[in-house]
Design goal:
Elements lengths: L6 H12 L6 E5 L5 E6 H9 L3 E12 L4 E10 L15 H7 L14 E5 L14 E5 H7 L20 H8 L8 H4 L10
Parallel strand pairs: 1-4
Antiparallel strand pairs: 1-2, 3-4, 5-6
Bound molecules: zinc ion.
Length: 195
């Protein structure tokens, strides 16, 4: 956008000023309606314009370009189903890991105290830093487990660790989920919904 002090530009800037951050974000659904990620308004617009996505929720405000008026996409759905390859699975962060595990220690269930990242199979024994091998552990449990396998110290995993669903990253990346996204995210809620 060219910035000058002409009338139309001032108008444009004024309009931009009205837009709360969340409206500039667009929820992207797979063809199956499963939430995939969040993209920018511009990206959503391009996907729709190219026929790769359709608008399933729009905002009640026109999106204007220099010459035309368009729907303001709020939720879009890809026309073709995309498989999320395991290779591009999101990187592990403590925040995402703790959120996946509900901000509690998987071994003792406590939510108090300091949470740590634990490799179920310790790295010293060849354990990988993958979603399937890391869990949230309170500091005392982590200390107790040390460099051993859970069963060696009579600790038990309640469930097999798995990569989180995309919805977890959407919630983590969007501090305030727009109300009209909830019906799409809700069915995929995890223990992280309140996080
Ligand atoms: Zn614990």
């Amino acid at each position: 956008m060219k910035v000058s002090d002409t009338g139309p530009t001032r108008f444009h800037l004024r309009v931009v000023g009205y837009i709360p951050g969340t409206v500039q974000q667009v929820l992207v659904l797979n063809a199956s309606y499963e939430p995939l990620n969040v993209c920018s308004l511009r990206r959503a617009y391009v996907l729709v314009f190219k026929g790769k996505a359709e608008v399933v929720e729009e905002l009640d405000r026109p999106l204007r370009s220099a010459t035309d008026t368009y729907q303001w996409p709020h939720v879009i759905r890809l026309v073709h189903y995309v498989r999320v390859p395991r290779m591009v699975q999101r990187k592990i962060s403590r925040r995402a890991l703790f959120a996946r595990d509900g901000w509690r220690c998987v071994y003792c269930g406590t939510t108090a105290g300091r949470l740590t990242l634990d490799h179920v199979i310790p790295r010293s024994k060849g354990g990988d830093s993958t979603w399937e091998n890391v869990v949230t552990s309170c500091a005392p449990c982590n200390l107790r487990k040390g460099n051993r396998l859970p069963h060696e110290v009579h600790m038990e995993l309640p469930a097999r660790p798995r990569p989180p669903a995309p919805v977890l990253f959407i919630r983590l990346a969007t501090p305030k989920i727009p109300q009209r996204w909830e019906q799409y995210l809700g069915p995929y809620a995890t223990s992280t919904a309140a996080a």
